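Sat 14:20. Reprocessing the chain from the morning session after the first attempt stalled halfway. Input below, unchanged.
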Amino acid sequence: MGIKKVRIRIGLDGRTQFKVEGGQGADCIDFTRALEQAVGSVENRELTADYHEAATEKVRDELKERGL
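Finished this time. Tokens:
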């Protein structure tokens, strides 16, 4: 995968949102882990289509390896 970017949005209420661009699957979560720890607990996590695409590709690869 190419270059990953994270967009950070801090609301007037102090809530912080991160949006990862250019990452897939657990890579996105790993990419933001240090930032999440710095700002506190994670209240909500919305997984995008990119996250799920990586999981689908992994299952396809495993099925190919088994000849299915």
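Residues 17 and 45 are 9 Å apart (CA to CA).
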